[in-house]
Amino acid sequence: MYCDRCGEPGTHPECTAARELEPPRYCPDCRRRMKVQVVPTGWTATCVEHGDRHG
Amino acid sequence: MPEILDHARTRVLDDGAGLDEAGILEVLRLPDEDLPELLQLAHDVRMKWCGPEVEVEGIVSLKTGGCPEDCHFCSQSGLFASPVRAVWLDIPSLVEAAKQTAATGATEFCIVAAVRGPDKRLMDQMRAGVRAIREAVDIQVAASLGMLTKEQVDELAEMGVHRYNHNLETCRSYFPNVVTTHSWEERWSTLTMVRESGMEVCCGGILGMGETLEQRAEFAAQLAELDPHEVPLNFLTPRPGTPFGDRPVVEGRDALRAIAAFRLAMPRTILRYAGGREITLGDLGTRDGLLGGINAMIVGNYLTTLGRPATADLELLKDLKMPVKSLSATF
């Protein structure tokens, strides 16, 4: 598993805290950078291999 | 009472004239013990010259990332090792975002694109998007598409875009430390054309990019000279991979001093909370700013980062007995 904020292996307290105000940028399964669309009430992050995530 | 606040009470509160650059700097230098009095004065000025209403806005990115410019604060520049990838929003999703924004009670919906200036593809997308929103949602449409030609200004006005955002970002003297791929004067030129077109001018910037207090005062004075309809005030949120990614965030009391100072520089403008308040001010500070000169806010998420839920901000406005500005009041 990879950190969905910085793409490095594992989880990181700084990234976990920052993620409260950020959508994910990296796929936690494969580390690919995702295409992320933020709208006023949510976000969608798309990995070409692992599909969409929503928040 | 500090002399500068006495002066501001007469000049700004009573007469409705803004402080000059020297006065703004004095305000920015006030010690912490004078902060409550400063905020109260800025609030009184806002209430007298703008009223109790708060203008609520939602923003959305039509074209994210891949920007050719090097704005050092921005995660959407294609020149930095930012994790933000380029992506376009389709028209149905744009209309849905406008609907969600209107459902919060917001009267403003700003469509933003990360570009130097719009090309034909973006202008075509804007035309289709604005038309679709106007057919489906009762909300005012604003736009922020970078630097414009005169023809593009006229085209946006003709589409029905009622307000155009183009931030100067910082004062003229500090701008070359923030952006090197275009000039402050080029931005000013777009703003001048927007004003001449009849569209409302929205122009603000970001505090905490390394500017001095003198430069912060210079920026407020330059904005006052521009006299925009709206000033969005951002506080730097350092983004990973950008040249400003390691900058410290603005200290909360400095942010509140800046809010009050900008209000005293521009007593009649719409002074909007934009990005960064969640980190710089937190919940309590957000409340203090609304009682210290702010009279507008972006609710919900930003372009690439997340905000507080709109419901939390709307509850706060209810607690403060500040009505959300209605659509009819905007015409």
TrEMBL record, chain A:
The keyword Protease does not apply. Its cofactor is iron-sulfur cluster. Residues 34-53 form the Biotin synthase auxiliary protein C-terminal domain. Keywords: Biotin biosynthesis, Iron, Metal-binding. Pfam families: BsaP. The keyword Metal-binding applies. Required for the activity of the biotin synthase BioB. Belongs to the BsaP family. This is Biotin synthase auxiliary protein. It comes from Actinoplanes philippinensis. The lineage of its organism: Bacteria, Bacillati, Actinomycetota, Actinomycetes, Micromonosporales.
UniProtKB/TrEMBL annotation, chain B:
Its cofactor is [2Fe-2S] cluster; [4Fe-4S] cluster. Its EC number is 2.8.1.6. InterPro entries: Aldolase_TIM, BATS_dom, Biotin_synth/BioAB, Biotin_synthase, Elp3/MiaA/NifB-like_rSAM, rSAM, rSAM_sf. Keywords: 2Fe-2S, 4Fe-4S, Biotin biosynthesis, Iron, Iron-sulfur, Metal-binding, S-adenosyl-L-methionine, Transferase. Pathway: Cofactor biosynthesis; biotin biosynthesis; biotin from 7,8-diaminononanoate: step 2/2. Residues 52-277 form the Radical SAM core domain. GO terms for molecular function: 2 iron, 2 sulfur cluster binding; 4 iron, 4 sulfur cluster binding; biotin synthase activity; iron ion binding. Catalyzes the conversion of dethiobiotin (DTB) to biotin by the insertion of a sulfur atom into dethiobiotin via a radical-based mechanism. Homodimer. This is Biotin synthase.
